[in-house]
Amino acid sequence: MNKLILTFLFLFMLVFTGQAKRVVRVVALGPTTPVIDLNMPYEQMVDTMMGFWDSKISEVLSYRPDLIVLPEACDRPDKLQQDWKAEKKYYEIRKDQFLDHFREIARNNHCYMVYSYKRILGDGTMRNSSVLIDRQGSVTGIYDKNYPTIGEMDRGIVRGIEAPVFKTDFGTVGMLICFDLNFDELRKKYAKVQPDILIFSSRYEGLLMQKFWAHSCRSFFVSAIEGLPFLPSEIIDPLGEILNQSNSHYLNFAYAEINLDNKLIHRDNTMDKMMALKKKYGDEVSIKDPGLLDVVLLSSYSDSLTVDDMIKEFDIETFDSYYQRSSDYRFEPGNMEK
Question: N or C end of the chain, less CB within 10 A?
Answer without folding.
Answer: C
